[in-house]
């Protein structure tokens, strides 16, 4: 089974590899445009970014499935403050399914900097004296003191988006 991931960020590729390990997939990383702002600011923008990445990754390759992962921030009804969210989309070129990952509360000082137009990755690097934390443990790792990390958090979104394919017949037939 060939899977194309619409990003070259190693944590996204790792999230797909670890989730689909059972199927021994060949996973390729494809640089695609998400079609949404670099820092999505709503669930809708984040889901759209994941969808675009999934479709564009599949279109750029001859893989069986395209997978898109997008991180974003959003104000969610009933949840105080600003939340970090992550969504995945999976397509076989016909059907497209979506799944969400964990939601984390962002500290107020981080939220204020994002409101001023900054991107989460650089803000986290500046705040913690790191370089490229978004390609390693991520905010999910830093803000939970390692109880989870970005790859693991993203892998939950991948599992949820792939689920509808895995429980159907089409997925098994491509193994
Ligand atoms: O190369 P791509 O695939 O774009 O990888 P990315 O790290 O930029 O990931 P996204 O575009 O999906 O994320 C949108 C923004 O949110 C940041 N971000 C999302 N989740 C993060 C996390 O866990 N830790 C740090 N930054 C994060 C990210 O660095 C971007 O600035
Ligand atoms: Mg990005």
List the ligand species.
inosine 5'-triphosphate, magnesium ion
Q: Based on CA inertia axes, which overall geometry fits?
A: globular
The topology string of helices and strands comes to EHEHEEEEHHHHH
Low-confidence stretches: none
Helix- and strand-based class? Answer: alpha/beta
What is the strand content?
15-25%
- Oligomeric state of the chains? single chain
Count of alpha/pi helices: 7
The overall average pLDDT, rounded, is: 96
CATH topology group:
Maf protein
Name of the level-1 CATH class: Alpha Beta
Distance between the termini: 5 Å
Could you describe the largest sheet, including whether it forms a barrel? Answer: 6 strands, mixed
By DSSP, the count of extended strands is 6
Identify the CATH architecture. Alpha-Beta Complex
User: Portion of residues in helices?
Assistant: 40-55%
Rounded to an integer in angstroms, the radius of gyration calculated over CA atoms is 16 Å
How many separate domains? Answer: 1
């Amino acid at each position: 089974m060939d899977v194309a991931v619409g990003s070259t960020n190693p944590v996204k590729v790792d999230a797909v590899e670890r989730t689909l390990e059972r199927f021994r997939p060949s996973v390729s990383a494809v640089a695609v445009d998400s079609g949404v702002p670099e820092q999505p600011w709503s669930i809708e923008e984040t889901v759209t970014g994941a969808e675009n990445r999934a479709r564009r990754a599949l279109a750029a390759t001859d893989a069986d499935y395209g997978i898109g992962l997008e991180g974003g921030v959003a104000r969610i009804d009933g949840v105080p403050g600003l939340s970090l969210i992550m969504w995945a989309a999976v397509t076989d070129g016909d059907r497209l399914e979506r799944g969400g990952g964990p939601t984390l509360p962002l500290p107020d000082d981080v939220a204020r900097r994002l409101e001023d137009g900054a991107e989460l990755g650089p803000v986290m690097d500046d705040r913690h004296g790191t370089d490229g934390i978004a390609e390693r443990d991520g905010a999910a790792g830093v803000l939970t003191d390692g109880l989870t990390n970005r790859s693991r958090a993203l892998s939950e979104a991948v599992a949820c988006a792939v689920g509808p394919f895995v429980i159907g017949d089409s997925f098994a037939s491509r193994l």
